[in-house]
Amino acid sequence: MKKYIQRLIQLLILFLPLLSLAQTYPNKPIKLIVPWAPGGATDQIGRMIGQALGQSLGTTVIVDNKAGAGGVIGTQAFVKEKPDGYTLLLATSSTNAAGPYLYSKLGFDPITDFSHVILICSIPNVMVVPTKSNWMTLKDIIKDSLDHPNAYSYGSAGVGGSQHLAGAQFKTITHTNINHVPYKGSGPAAQDLIAGHIDMMIDTGSLASIKAGLLRPIAVASNKRLIALPNTPTFKEAGVDMVASAWYGLMLPAKASPELIEKLNSEMNLILQRPDIKNKMTEMGAEVAGGSAHDFYRFAQSELKRYEAIVNDSGAPKE
Fold first, then answer.
1. 191 and 265 within one domain
2. Domain check: are 164 and 105 in the same one?
3. Phi, psi dihedrals of residue 241, rounded to the nearest 5°
4. Any bridge partners for residue 225, and if so which?
5. Residue 181 sits in which domain range?
6. Above 90 in pLDDT, residue 107?
7. For 50, which of 26, 61, 135, 246 could close a Cys bridge (C-beta 3.0–4.6 Å)?
8. Is the pTM higher than 0.85?
9. Which pLDDT band, with edges at 50, 70 and 90, does 104 fall under?
10. Do 118 and 251 belong together in one domain?
């Protein structure tokens, strides 16, 4: 009996902070910083997750788009916030993996300035062109680009974004000269692509425009075809050995309490298992992740190392 009481006391000591947190958090709206412009994949994921998390926590999650410099401006603002759970970040591979190798003055440490909550998903890039384009295959694009150097352009969400790096990879592998046009988010870039102001994108958030008949998919930068695009070949199937994707995760500022991290991680894991969320992500071409906060931390560290080689191989200049 004495051992039982001692064990009960130990459990109470362990879970008391969580019980206290559950009673007090949240008691006001939460801000989710999305460091990209509205309309792109990052914004779509942010709004989907923000709405679901707000419903789960019984509060409002307000999406705050802070675009610019490949996600760096919004991320710089985020790391200055208090780690009290009322400001979250939708972090991406562009900001927290590629950024250090693309900006000489990044303004934050991609690991130590963050409390990692959960890896949400990853999305393979898809090469798309306007439906009025004469290009039907990857071979068409490569041939015309080789025959007419610097005559064509590709858009991106900004320097260091997954679209930029995927485009740079494509140019390096195919020895083509295609001009890079950076925007403040993939939404504005996609609008210009649809309007015909640029010639192509290798994008993560184009499935809605493809389904609407505004863009034509050429190839998917993944190891296998997307469920949402079963008739679109992979780059490898089309003759170019290339894989490129972007990942998205939820962060708190550095030094957030373990109890807060655990609470948000638990809520998010439940959200990511919801059929409606999984279906929406599948429709975007996303692969749902989830897991523990420590899993995300270790993943982010490994991605930081992996992206050093990706950026170097891409030939993208450091700003």
1. no
2. no
3. -80, 90
4. none
5. 126-220
6. yes
7. 61
8. no
9. confident
10. yes
Q: What is the tens place of the pLDDT at every residue in 201-231?
A: 999 888 889 999 999 999 999 989 998 899 9
Are 87 and 10 part of one and the same domain?
A: yes
Instruction: Supply the pLDDT for residue 1.
Output: 56
Identify the pLDDT of residue 187.
Answer: 86
> What is the 3-class SS of the chain, one letter each residue?
CHHHHHHHHHHHHHHHHHHHHHHHCCCCCEEEEECCCCCCHHHHHHHHHHHHHHHHHCCCEEEEECCCHHHHHHHHHHCCCCCCCCEEEEEEHHHHHHHHHCCCCCCCCCCCCEEEEEEEEEEECEEEEECCCCCCCHHHHHHHHHHCCCCCEEEECCCCCHHHHHHHHHHHHHCCCCEEEECCCHHHHHHHHHHCCCCEEEECCCHHHHHCCCEEEEEECCCCCCCCCCCCCECCCCCCCCCCEEEEEEEEECCCCHHHHHHHHHHHHHHHCCHHHHHHHHHCCCEECCCCHHHHHHHHHHHHHHHHHHHHHHCCCCC
Please write the tens of the pLDDT for every residue from 24-44: 899 999 999 999 989 888 999
Instruction: Tell which of 178, 202, 220 closes a domain.
Output: 220
Question: Does the structure show a pLDDT above 50 at 86?
Answer: yes
| Count of structural domains within the chain | 2
Residues contacting residue 206 through CB under 8 Å, at least 6 positions apart: 126, 128, 190, 215, 217
Band (pLDDT 50/70/90 cuts) for residue 15 is very low
